[in-house]
Amino acid sequence: MEERSRPQIVMPSFLTESHFLPNSIAAEQLAAERLAQEQSPARPAVTWRELLAVLLLVVLGDLTLYWGHGYGGYALLLATAPLAVLLGAARHQRPWQVLAATLMIWGAALRLAWCGNWLAFALGGVLLIGLSTSLAGKGMYFRDVLRWLASFIPSLFRGLADYEATFRRRVSLRWGLPTQAILWAYLLPPICAVIFLGLFIQANPDISLWVQQRLLSFQELWSHVWSIIGSPYRMGFWLICGCVAIVLMRPHLWTLYEILQTEPLEDLKTDRSSRTDLYPAYRNTILVLIVLFAMYLVFEFVTMWTRTFPPGFHYSGYAHEGAAWLTVALALATIMLSIIFNASMMTDPRMPALRNLAMIWAAENILLALAVYNRLFIYVGFNGMTRMRVVGILGVTSVLAGVVLVMIKISRGHSFGWLLKNQIFVVAVAAYLYAVLPVDGWVMTYNVRQVLAGNLPPSVQIAHHPTTTEGWLALLPLQQAENQVIREGVVEMLTNHERRLNNAPPIDWTARQLADERFLLEVALPENDSLRKPIKPGAEDRFRSFSFQWY
Q: What is the pTM of this model?
């Protein structure tokens, strides 16, 4: 059978072109690129109309979605967006289909302007995608809309490649300035270092406060800029609108199978003559991050692992929010390793040296994951266990598994599809464990044992966090607690839950819960038991107020 051709996802040229190579290799690569361009269909050039249309769609999204409050703004968006897409679209094909899609979008806009509903707005968005696929020469059926959505990321990379190539051509960057490889070799390391340093600073409230105080001199300028922007989320929204606009202008519809299909790395490994011009940037970046991570790990060990904390230690800031920021750093490091060791890097003859550096950095990430576990257990030791702390432990474990998977991918040459598949499997297993394991029972059992042992702060999790019947079962031993406020509060809580179960209307056998039946059996006490003696009303409220000191 004839071998099926595979589509090539085109990355921006600053990620693909090798200016910083010996002349012979650069000439061979340039010849290969020209041959590929001759064999591939012509791609429309980026025009000023398209740039204006992208800007217009970003402004429309900001006015009608980010700052919008109702269907009138959505109507303006659907009324104007087709005109912007028609103005800037890279191709204009299937005019009758385009006309039909535009009229249908305007019909949805009229409905939103008159008396709107969410269905009309959603269909207008789907029709806008249909307009994009029609302009590209495809259909506007549901299948084409799904292909547009599935091809969003590859189409975005392809569009960015076109934009970047046009920019270089317009300002003569190809020959007039230093090559992108040299620029990235010196720019990428400090950029990544600043990002990770910012995450480490956020993970330590005292250092974060010190940095904020040192930056007060820029407060006036920052306040002026901030008054214009309003929020970093708004900038993120602009970025999303711009990406959607680019894909609307120049979609490239692949099937999901074609997107995930990759060339076997075994074939790529046979050719070790392909040199990646971003190798210096990747090498310098990993070296800088190895040093940064090593310095931070020493700081983390000195400040957090001894567990001798001064009075007033900010447990929530360090052990809760700090653990979250360090988890973000772990996830970002995993993503960076995946990006660096792409298919082109795996064919570079210098890859083994870069792989050794990456393994050192990955080992530091494993140590950082252990630091995150330590911070989480510091918080657990301070005031007990909760559901969300279980979620945090499972989440960190999933990120740690991602680091290990990236190390396996690098050492064995697996594809990005292999990494994505296995990472999704790890997250699914974590979600499954959280769903089927008796989390509430374990959480409350831990807190009860701590309280019975004389460590009272975990009582705050009992008083202020909801639980299921399996959690109520774990609270039964607290009826013998020495602290009167805790004992009486728990007794009233158990009595109230027993009353709720007994007063519930009769249920069908299909709604039986074994935990409820066991609770009713075990909570029942003889009438002459001391625990049945009347207690002052409001015992549960007193328990909540008493335990709130450890919140």
A: 0.59
